[in-house]
Specification:
Shape: elongated
Radius of gyration: 19 Å
Order of helices and strands: EHHEHHHHHHHH
Number of domains: 2
Number of strands: 2
Strand content: under 5%
Largest sheet: 2 strands, parallel
Number of helices: 10
Distance between the termini: 36 Å
């Protein structure tokens, strides 16, 4: 079974590992089937948008474009990705901290305060933000420790904090389906 590729939270190493596994698992299949399988494995807003706007007709084109988009990213591209990364619903403080730390490492961002700012900017949980605002925290490990100490590391989530993430996907899918149906007629 091929594991999904979560484009919004993937580091360069995870992208490379996914690609190697995917390539090995689909070797010998026809291009159309490989492209279809890839599309099913692709998860996350960044990947969805990349797929929607790129015209990929054969597997070699997919290989080149995936490599250029997710594996050969410059530090500037990784920083842009850091700015837009948001914590997913149900993600614990430790996992969120590890994710941001790995993205910061890939972006060659080693300043603890900058890393902490990326950690904060991706938070959607109001209680976490309030708890961290009332303490003298300036690094990801300290923030996670504070949330653990206050027994807040597993979030109690408000659906409105994630409305933009879940609400936009169905409308995008519906729009795409309608466009495809129109083109087919």
């Amino acid at each position: 079974m091929i594991q999904p590729f979560y484009s919004d939270s993937a580091s360069v190493d995870k992208a490379r590992t996914f690609w190697d596994d995917f390539d090995r698992a689909t070797e010998g299949l026809e291009d159309a089937l490989r492209l279809s399988a890839f599309r099913e494995c692709l998860k996350g807003k960044a990947g969805e948008q990349w797929w929607m706007y790129s015209q990929t007709n054969d597997f070699e084109t997919l290989r080149t474009r995936f490599h250029n988009q997710f594996i050969c990213q410059t530090p500037l591209q990784m920083i842009e990705r850091l700015k837009s990364t948001k914590r997913s619903k149900g993600m614990s403080a430790e996992v969120w901290g590890d994710l941001i730390s790995s993205l910061c490492d890939a972006a060659q961002c080693y300043d603890a305060e900058m890393r902490y700012q990326y950690f904060l900017s991706g938070l959607r949980n109001k209680e976490w933000k309030a708890a961290l605002a009332t303490t003298m925290v300036n690094s990801i490990p300290h923030a996670v420790a504070v949330l653990l100490f206050k027994n807040m590391h597993l979030p109690i989530e408000d659906d409105s904090e994630f409305a933009e993430a879940s609400g936009s996907k169905p409308s995008t899918e519906n729009t795409m389906m309608q466009q495809m149906l129109t083109m087919m007629q």
